[in-house]
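Re: the request from the purification team.
They wanted to know what the chain is likely to look like in 3D before they choose a buffer screen. I agreed to run a prediction and write the result into the notebook, where they can find it.
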Amino acid sequence: MEHNKNVMPDGPIGPNGVLGPLGIPPYSDVIVLNTTLLRERSKLTSYKECKEINLFERLKAANATAWCKGAGLAAIQIGIPLRAAWYVIGDKEYCLINPHIIRARGKVITKEGCLSIPNVWVQTERYGSLLIASETEGGITETRAVKDFEALIVQHELDHMDGILLYQHKAKAVVDTGRNEPCPCGSGKKYKRCCIDKPPEIMPE
């Protein structure tokens, strides 16, 4: 089922009407890596406020600069503490405004990364199916079902809105990392020379 009002809205082309090489306005937002800022709880917002600051276009542009191919960003990840996010599934883009989970089912273990924590992959426990609510252009709250990878994205961005990082979300070291492979903590050392014997709760941030 399509929910067109939840698809990324049309917005201003950008400064001076100029588009970048990927068809994205040349915004200069940088993805936040500062964990102190990322732990800040975001505030409620509105479609109007997001539109006024070109938030979703800026999130899309910042996503294109990430350390790996990203599926989405929360506003706090470009330093804007608002409860909003942008993400993409296939060729379809979505925005979330003041989202919340109504129902969650089917826990799954998945390998997960974060664009604000470069070169780190951890295992998290998530729900595989959600019923979510999010505000639309007219300020109306609409509900829709999401599952699988999209459900993972929504939960990840909701965590960012609540100031929660992967490490705080029952994350643990990726169990299938080989002894001679790079450590998932991002130190550059081999796993056997770094975090292989460390409990998950002291994995470096």
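For the purification team: Residues 1-24, 171-175, 199-205 have pLDDT under 50 and may be disordered.
Please add any questions underneath this entry.
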